[in-house]
Amino acid sequence: MSSIVDKGKQIVEEILEVYPKKAKKDRTKHFEIADEELVNCGTCSIKSNMKSRPGVMTARGCAYAGSKGVVWGPIKDMVHISHGPIGCGQYSWGTRRNYANGVLGIDNFTAMQITSNFQEKDIVFGGDKKLEVICREIKEMFPLAKGISVQSECPVGLIGDDIGAVAKKMTEELGIPVIPVRCEGFRGVSQSLGHHIANDAIRDFLMGRRELKESGPYDVSIIGDYNIGGDAWASRILLEEMGLRVIAQWSGDGTINELGIAHKSKLNLIHCHRSMNYMCTTMEQEYGIPWMEYNFFGPTKTMESLRAIAARFDETIQEKCEQVIAQYMPQMEAVIRKYRPRLEGKKVMLLIGGLRARHTIGAYEDLGMEIVATGYEFAHKDDYEKTFPDVKEGTILYDDPTAYELEELAQRLNIDLMGAGVKEKYVYHKMGIPFRQMHSWDYSGPYHGFDGFKIFARDMDMTINSPVWSLLPSRQTAEVPV
């Protein structure tokens, strides 16, 4: 075993030493150091998709966050009701930056927050009647809304409100789909179950229920792209430039109609495997639609993905694919020439919800940066098996790490950049460590595709090389014996 792997094991061992014996034994199972065997074969023993240990600070969200905040919220021509107390709805309001075309309040409702605002009397007597009133008010206030989803919060499940019966009644009365989503926050171990619950609701109420007027041989759907900062638009540009027709976006800048016609695709292209793989496998089983995962972070992975997509079609698409790559490569080379000298050798540590802990690795490496540690908030085993081939030997991987573990790792590894979510951001600022929000792009973006890489490179340079860090006292890094 190499010294770099031994060093990683020693760092993890020392960090976990502070825990009681039982807690240490449990947390040890959630760490893995990439060695030659893991990098080559991709198998792993890291424990994931398990309950967070009580008493620790976890960065995870809940099932409601996975459904309303990720899958359903970006569907622009529907009104999404946060059914329960005000707090969950307020927290999920506008935090994801899902861009969408349209006029707010007319045919685009993504930036609005509709809540049933449960009070004590609703907990005692139930909120079914209140939900009916809200649905009628929505229909009156927003007559062009194409549907309503009811996203249930924890109390709804605890008191036993029958949102399914209300949704059925309101669908018949209002003449638009009213879809119940039983995504109470206490369900499951993380927001990952919320994705699955949301997918099941799409399957049960919308999938395959609408028709596409004209089908073509190059029809594709973008699955699992939530258009953070315009990501889906940047991806769509490339797909259309190579001759494909995008008939549906699930669900960034997406519509209820697109959810109903995606079964007409010739190929489903999935970006966020964790949140939408259920839908791709369902459409494959029910409609025979093949699917593939793609990665549009950084020019290297974007080119690989474009060619892999083109290989699923005829020579016409393959030729156009090469033309698109040739068109953009001078721009990408110029970006790398500008920023790589400023970022070469910088050490990066990541904690991101779903796919980005592995998908963004190539973009950092295109700029000469090194991923020294990475992990997920709510990954499953297959996510880690897909990650190991993309990391280098000695990389530390972790599942659902505690705040303490992350801070200790950041100091001991002497990182130059931390990429995680807004909950972690200001902790690292106070530690004097440059930080980027890799859930919502820190008010920037897009980061996907060739156009997105220009912004990604600029943002990483701006963050790491900002003169503000020179105003902070030098941070002391722990000396770790080799």
UniProtKB/TrEMBL annotation:
Signal peptide: none annotated. Its cofactor is [7Fe-Mo-9S-C-homocitryl] cluster; [8Fe-7S] cluster. Pfam families: Oxidored_nitro. It catalyses: N2 + 8 reduced [2Fe-2S]-[ferredoxin] + 16 ATP + 16 H2O = H2 + 8 oxidized [2Fe-2S]-[ferredoxin] + 2 NH4(+) + 16 ADP + 16 phosphate + 6 H(+). Keywords: ATP-binding, Iron, Iron-sulfur, Metal-binding, Molybdenum, Nitrogen fixation, Nucleotide-binding, Oxidoreductase. It is an enzyme of class 1 (oxidoreductase). GO terms for molecular function: nitrogenase activity. Its EC number is 1.18.6.1. Gene3D superfamilies: Nitrogenase molybdenum iron protein domain. NCBIfam families: N2-ase-Ialpha, nifD. Belongs to the NifD/NifK/NifE/NifN family. Tetramer of two alpha and two beta chains. Forms complex with the iron protein (nitrogenase component 2). This molybdenum-iron protein is part of the nitrogenase complex that catalyzes the key enzymatic reactions in nitrogen fixation. This is Nitrogenase protein alpha chain.
